[in-house]
Amino acid sequence: MGSAVTIRKARLKDAAGIAAVAESVRYQSGAADGAQGYLVYVGKPEDYLGRLKDDYLCFVAEKDGEVVGFVMASGWKRNTATHVEAAAVEERIFGEET
Is the pTM of this model over 0.85? Predict the structure, then answer.
């Protein structure tokens, strides 16, 4: 039986691992699989370190001491991967027009 995966709040030292996971699921034209998920924006370790220092809500999945997954959230509604072009849709997502 393999090692268990642990979910925990991210630490500053996790920035490089978060960047590596993000890079592993970077959007590749013609190869992206919506069922598997992908990221359009992938930051560098220092980008993720800055977000962790800014106290973004972030959790990592860790296995054998290595970051193998992450989820990160921001309280700033403009910092989203959701692209909104219609004010009515934006209002439904965020609760107000901007």
Answer: no
Q: Please say whether the dihedral angle defined by the alpha carbons of residues 24, 28, 32 and 37, taken in this order, is positive or negative.
A: positive
What gap in Å lies between CA 44 and CA 92, rounded to an integer?
32
- Give 40-91 pLDDT, tens digit per residue: 778 899 999 998 998 888 999 999 999 999 988 866 655 555 444 555 555 5
Q: How far is CA 69 from CA 13, 40, 62, in A?
A: 14, 16, 7
What are the tokens at 35?
A: 């069922």
Alpha carbon separation from 18 to 11, 35, 72, 90, 92 (Å, rounded): 10, 21, 10, 29, 30
